[in-house]
């Protein structure tokens, strides 16, 4: 099969969907790989390096989409990329469709089969393709939050770890999954006073053991969050419902409980955001202020460290790319129920129930939709 890797069209996105190692694995398995010129530059991967492992460099995205059957990306397709998709394509990338009804409708209209990294599951119900980027995003969330607390950046002027004789900052991490755990790791390492909120008591027990009692674990409720907000300097939102729009855990009214210059970092922004006042931002313009509270809501946080992120992502996605290329879409999803859960759009229909509910489009069972897709 011919696999295509375009440059990422999203603003301030420096990752690329496949490393030279991934190209080598696919080429050795008998597949062709076409890579858009300059696609790897943001991750310090030269075209010549791809070529040395068997890839063919093509001049633009149009050439990639024209030639490839399987298109592998990092971020959700931008309008100019959607226009290049057709029924012959499999698109494998992060999609985050729940807060994006227009994109969902456009992908349905394209006729392409669209498989979302963020809803692929393993045999234990975990999200193996989202996990590495969640690890990166969690660590960046604390780093960014600490930076934004500095006075020249609009923050309160608080050092996260304090110094002897001056108290450390209070960090609230709402959500104890992969993002929240990694955010807490960094905050603990920076010697902040850390509180991790979650609704799963067993997960809180796990985190208490992992952190060796170095942070407080709190069962998450509206009242518990409200009681902690007045003392918070940094709040990290790390709430995830598989494939669905994130719920709001802090409302605009609750911002009034916080100290002016405090910082909110919303890692759930790809799924619509978990703070009522969140809206997407970019690395070029990462923050804005609402009611005296600084908001950091960058939609592609791992894109800030593309060398780390690109290699971490390819490590996770390559087995699935190889399966789709080697078996074809129908056989690959039949062999792996977890990969089947990644199919969000097929044959012009939405095939992931939480997305259909969020965007207000009809839901179609994935097997029924895929039956209308011709075999490769």
Describe the 3D structure:
It is a single chain. With 376 residues, this protein is an alpha/beta fold. It has two domains: 2-120 and 306-370, 3-Layer(aba) Sandwich (Rossmann fold); 136-304, 3-Layer(aba) Sandwich (Rossmann fold), CATH 3.40.50.720. It has helices at 20-28, 47-52, 61-67, 79-82, 101-110, 131-148, 178-189, 201-210, 222-228, 252-255, 306-335, 337-340, 353-359, 366-370, and strands at residues 2-5, 32-36, 56-58, 70-72, 90-93, 113-116, 170-174, 193-198, 216-219, 234-237, 263-266, 287-290, 293-296, 343-346, 349-350. The protein starts with a strand and ends in a 6-residue tail after the last helix.
* Main beta-sheet annotation: 8 strands, mixed
Rounded mean pLDDT is 97
Q: How much of the sequence is in beta strands?
A: 15-25%
- What distance separates the N and C termini? 9 Å
CATH topology of the largest domain: Rossmann fold
**CATH homologous superfamily heading of the largest domain:** NAD(P)-binding Rossmann-like Domain
How many helices? 14
CATH class division of the largest domain: Alpha Beta
Q: Roughly how many Å is the radius of gyration?
A: 21 Å
Overall outline:
globular
SSE series: EHEHEHEHEHEHEHEHEHEHEEEHHEEHH
- Annotation, overall tally of beta strands: 15
């Amino acid at each position: 099969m011919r696999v295509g890797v375009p440059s990422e069209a999203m603003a301030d996105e420096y990752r690329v969907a496949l490393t030279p190692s991934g190209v080598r694995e696919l080429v050795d398995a008998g597949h062709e790989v076409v890579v858009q010129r300059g696609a790897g530059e943001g991750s310090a991967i030269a075209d010549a390096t791809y070529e040395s492992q068997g890839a063919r460099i093509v001049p633009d995205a149009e050439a990639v989409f024209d030639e490839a059957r399987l298109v592998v990306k990092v971020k959700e397709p931008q309008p100019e990329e959607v226009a290049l998709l057709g029924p012959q394509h499999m698109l494998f990338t992060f999609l985050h469709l729940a807060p994006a009804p227009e994109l969902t409708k456009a992908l349905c209209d394209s006729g392409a089969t669209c498989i979302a990294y963020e809803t692929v599951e393993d045999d234990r119900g975990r999200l193996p393709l989202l996990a590495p980027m969640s690890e990166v995003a969690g660590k960046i969330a604390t780093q960014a939050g600490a930076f934004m607390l500095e006075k020249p950046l609009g923050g309160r002027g608080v050092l996260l770890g304090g110094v002897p004789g001056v108290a450390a900052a209070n960090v609230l991490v709402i959500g104890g999954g992969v993002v929240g755990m990694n955010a807490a790791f960094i905050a603990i390492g920076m010697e902040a006073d850390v509180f991790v909120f979650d609704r799963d008591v067993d997960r809180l027990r796990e985190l208490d053991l992992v952190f060796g009692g170095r942070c407080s674990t709190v069962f998450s409720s509206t009242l518990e969050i409200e009681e902690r907000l007045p003392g918070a300097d940094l709040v990290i939102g790390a709430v995830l419902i598989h494939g669905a729009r994130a719920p709001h855990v802090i409302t605009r009214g609750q911002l009034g409980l916080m100290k002016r210059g405090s910082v909110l970092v919303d890692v759930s922004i790809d799924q619509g955001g978990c703070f009522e006042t969140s809206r997407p931002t970019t690395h070029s313009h990462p923050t804005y202020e609402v009611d005296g509270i600084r908001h950091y809501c960058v939609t592609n946080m791992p894109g800030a460290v593309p060398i780390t992120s690109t290699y971490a992502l390819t490590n996770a996605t390559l087995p699935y790319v190889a399966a789709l290329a080697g078996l074809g879409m129908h056989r690959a999803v039949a062999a792996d129920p977890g990969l089947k859960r990644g199919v969000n759009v097929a044959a012009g229909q939405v095939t992931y129930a939480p997305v259909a509910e969020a965007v207000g489009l009809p839901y179609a069972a994935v097997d029924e939709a895929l039956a209308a897709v011709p075999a490769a």
